[in-house]
Amino acid sequence: MLESALIYMVLLRILSGSLEITAAGLMFKFNDLEKALAINSLLALVGPTVLIITTGIGIAGISEKISYLKMVCLFSGVLLILLSLKMK
Q: Transmembrane ranges (predicted)?
């Protein structure tokens, strides 16, 4: 049987992927570079949010199986990924 944390992670990723595909369709439909950039900017907010939430759900699901130090390391890794994306 699947764990509830895994189900939530999968559903969130399916929703995120559906938003990406919908955004691509809208960009194609509008056929306008400015609107495409606006849509892409909204997606830039969705991606990191989904990453943080799915990581949080996953860590919460295995919290009794891993140490506090490992949880801190995992969240630090996610934070470093996000910081590296912001750097020039």
A: 6-30, 42-62, 68-85
- What pLDDT score was predicted for residue 65? 87
DSSP 47: H
Checking if the pLDDT of 27 tops 90, the result is: yes
Structure tokens at 29: 């439909």
Counted domains in the chain: 1
Given its phi and psi angles, is residue 31 left (phi above 0), alpha (psi -120 to 50 degrees) or beta? left
The pLDDT tens digits of the residues spanning 30-54 come to: 999 999 999 999 998 898 899 889 9
Question: Which of 81, 36, 74 has its CA nearest to residue 55?
Answer: 74
Q: What does the block give as tokens for 62?
A: 């295995």
Question: Side chain identity at 49, as an amino acid letter?
Answer: T
Domain that holds residue 13: 4-86
